[in-house]
Amino acid sequence: MNDAAPRPTLEAVAARAGVSRATVSRVVNGGDGVREPLVERVRRAVEELGYVPNQAARSLVTKRHHAVAVVVAEPESRVFADPFFALQLRGISKELTAQDNQLVLLLTEGRDDHTRVARYLAGGHVDGALVFSLHLDDPLPGLIQRAGVPTVFGGRPGWSDGTADVVYVDSDNRGGARDAVRHLLGLGRSRVAHITGALDQTSAVDRLDGYRDVMGDADPDLVAPGDFTPAGGERAMRELLDRCPGLDAVFAANDLTASGALRVLRERGRRVPEDVALIGFDDMLPVAEQTDPPLTTVRQDIEEMGRLMARLLLRGLDPSPAGPAGAAPAGAAPAGVVLPTTLVRRASA
Amino acid sequence: MNDAAPRPTLEAVAARAGVSRATVSRVVNGGDGVREPLVERVRRAVEELGYVPNQAARSLVTKRHHAVAVVVAEPESRVFADPFFALQLRGISKELTAQDNQLVLLLTEGRDDHTRVARYLAGGHVDGALVFSLHLDDPLPGLIQRAGVPTVFGGRPGWSDGTADVVYVDSDNRGGARDAVRHLLGLGRSRVAHITGALDQTSAVDRLDGYRDVMGDADPDLVAPGDFTPAGGERAMRELLDRCPGLDAVFAANDLTASGALRVLRERGRRVPEDVALIGFDDMLPVAEQTDPPLTTVRQDIEEMGRLMARLLLRGLDPSPAGPAGAAPAGAAPAGVVLPTTLVRRASA
DNA sequence: GACTCGGTTGAGAGCGCTCTCGTGGAGAGG
DNA sequence: CCTCTCCACGAGAGCGCTCTCAACCGAGTC
């Protein structure tokens, strides 16, 4: 249907500039060791011919692809369906393209995809991988780790409790949860309940831990299991209200959960925040800002998480600059980086 | 940090199986014209060595990359931040991987990125592109079109009013809008208002056109400009209520807009749907289901749109099967494919 | 039984690039 | 003025693969 003119090669540029292929190559790749007049001539030839290097040929010899895979496990799950992930992707993309790397997106669902992805990564088509997987029992991270591709994880993987040499970026779920609960206590509330997230995900576990850090072993009846969905929030809220009618505050594991809880609170005639203060997590805008009252919540800098993941990976790939005096000891990559969270006060608490 | 064993090459497999490189290549690529015993021997060698073809080397000679770029213009905009896009991406991904193609994600913002993307595409690193751009005046689609890469657009591009040979997939915004308005009329409402979307996007224009198809040139005061955001919806709703206190139904250009309108309606003491029936567009779940009352809205099969885009592109790339008796005349690609919408009845209308 | 023919296999030429060497010329040193 | 060094440049090998083409082999054919 199209397939027009064959794209110009190094050879063509060389001919036009009246130099050798090697010289053109040098110019194209930075131009060190080539005298100014020649550089200029080559540049012009490149320009005139509209030359663009053939990445395949280049990769063939350099073994670098300037491409990074972003693996998202189980996209039906929460990761993919909310703006959270879109933002992270944006951060990743920015950082990657800033360093002239491409982003290869790999979405998986189910076993078949696991092996497909593992093969692909092991196949050496990309220089590294950024992996998102929420579930503790997901075999994918393990497979990937074994594939021998440099990898950075988004969120703390379940099987790495600070031990192994796994590189990941996470936000401070535990600290954020503590802040939320403390805020509630600071408001003079004392019977603070918690609706957990899906506890097969580290973020949910960490948030629960944060709650416990502050509340100690308060009344265990004040904790009800949720699953990060509005429906789960409703269910848990009913349960809590039945069990502990006297509760005066709720910390929900995320904003979606909080929105469900909010509906039940209203239905049961509790005023928010007067009777019950409510606080969420994520600061998922379309939800947090649209509820009535708007949700007080814990925000994470999602885009920055993405950037950081990419930066970490790229740094690990590139055995070069080392900065002023060697920023970080060569082999010792930072195992996990945890980004701070901030409390966003709106009307619900 | 790692870089372990060099991966086995075709040569290695050939040696192990006691055949020539050519034969291994034939087997790896389908095995036609190779006798069974040999095929078996080669297969085993591949297995034992864990051989994975080097895609770079392959691309170098075949000029096919088995990779498709997905270009998303202006990710700050609505496209990227909502689940809409995530779903579309999922559809694309499924279709692409089913045919063993990779998905290279290109996010752009601003001029610099435009030229970067154009260069990348023109550079022949991918076999084709799927492009999302919402704004009528976006120069990117034009640039891409000129880059000579096979392209399918998501959503009807502004500059192609059915004329040019542009391939795109869109949902039936106009028809969906008509359905919505007719539904409202069917409910016995007569003063049906419309809050438009951002009119620099074809989807918004099409929805407005659909409204007009049914309402004729009703009272122009019944149309107020929005911008696809909740805030825009609030503003427009206030305007409408001031101008036409007697209105009894509102068709909002999308769910976000509807949620804003809903808030204003409640604030002004109008009951929904008793006093004013309200209907949205998109069926953006976290919004449409969470409002009070839940939103009646027009749904599009987003994931299918994605799949279809990918399928269209791939079909255009592959000059092969042609199906039973040549499904479609070779050169005559279907210019635009428009997917149907369905009305989802909830409580608001 | 010599000959042809369709089908299988191997040899070898590149695809476009990078990178190692070797060469030649300009400048420094004796 | 001649040698030694250093640096800019070109020649050429090869990255791992596909694909054309020639060689070969067994089965028909006359």
From TrEMBL, chains A, B:
What Pfam families does its record include? Answer: LacI (PF00356), Peripla_BP_3 (PF13377)
InterPro entries noted in UniProt: HTH_LacI (IPR000843), LacI/GalR-like_sensor (IPR046335), Lambda_DNA-bd_dom_sf (IPR010982), Peripla_BP_I (IPR028082)
**What molecular function terms (GO) are annotated for this protein?**
DNA-binding transcription factor activity; transcription cis-regulatory region binding
Q: Where is the HTH lacI-type domain?
A: 8-62
**Gene3D superfamilies referenced in this protein's UniProt entry, alphabetically:** 3.40.50.2300, lambda repressor-like DNA-binding domains (1.10.260.40)
Q: Which UniProt keywords apply?
A: DNA-binding, Transcription, Transcription regulation
| Protein name (record) | LacI family transcriptional regulator
Species this protein is from? Streptomyces griseorubiginosus
